[in-house]
Amino acid sequence: MPENHSNPSNSLTLARTLHVVRKGDAPPIISLPPHCIPDSEEAAYEVQNHVAALNGPVRGWKVGAAGPDAEPSAAPLHAETLFADGAVIPADFFHHRGVEAEIAYRFDRAVGSDLSPDAILAAVGSVHPAIEVVDTRFIKPGSQSRLVHMADQQNHGALILGPAFSDWRHFDPAQEKFVMRVDHRRVSEQVGGNAAGDLTRLLVWLAGHAVRRGFPIEAGTVVTTGSLSGAFFVPHRTHVSVQFGTLGTVTAFLE
């Protein structure tokens, strides 16, 4: 008889394993036993839900899509990995440091029972420049299957949020130029860059997804919408900045 990879006890076991590695109480994972490997997106999200229960209240999300018509995917984020502009993040916070330029939105109001696009977007208050640090609880980025990395908070390490730009409805991410620097050396410069296309589509999709997951969007929730630059893996003691034409600049120092 084939093993049931979606068994709730297997999902909880994997979540607890990921949690202790995140906390620094166990080394990065080399491989998983077959019964702990998610066999569907639903199973990967179940692991994420267990991780969320272990990490505390959901304060943000990462969401993205491979193309304008592709089904998005998401992972909940928590206060301990959300940082303000100019953050200095301790050396032991990550196993790996893959820095990405991103655009994030902040909901000023909770999303209620009305999940129409107009109602969801009416709750958005601002758009922000952001840096996501890609990390994994596994021995090496990309060393596991897509579903395993999805279960692992979609490789989330930290999110650094820059200043608010409140006129977000008149902001066009596809036309926004940015320059990303690592230790003041330019590593990426382009206009747009997000494969998902319309980022508001991601926000609308996420609001419904979050409700179904039991984590409805609350006031103050931050949502980052996927990489513009791709990931640049950097060593300890690295300064990272992303300067946007409209949104301004966000910086971080990774000890």
Summarize the topology.
Blueprint: H1 8-22, H2 41-55, E1 58-64, E2 73-78, E3 82-84, E4 87-89, E5 98-107, H3 117-122, E6 124-134, H4 146-151, E7 156-161, E8 177-182, E9 185-191, H5 199-213, E10 222-227, E11 232-233, E12 238-244, E13 248-254
Parallel strand pairs: 1-10, 3-7, 4-13
Antiparallel strand pairs: 1-2, 5-6, 5-10, 5-11, 6-7, 8-9, 8-12, 12-13
Helix pairs in contact: 1-2
Main sheet properties: 8 strands, mixed
CATH superfamily: Fumarylacetoacetase-like, C-terminal domain
The oligomeric status of these chains comes to single chain
Number of strands: 13
Run of helices and strands: HHEEEEEHEHEEEHEEEE
> What is the SS-derived class?
alpha+beta
Distance between the termini: 49 Å
> What is the top-level CATH class?
Alpha Beta
Shape: globular
Overall number of domains = 1
List low-confidence stretches: 1-5
Helix content: 10-25%
Average of pLDDT: 96
Radius of gyration: 18 Å
Helix count from the secondary structure assignment: 5
In the CATH classification, which architecture applies? Alpha-Beta Complex
CATH third-level topology: Fumarylacetoacetate hydrolase, domain 2
Beta-strand content bin? 25-35%
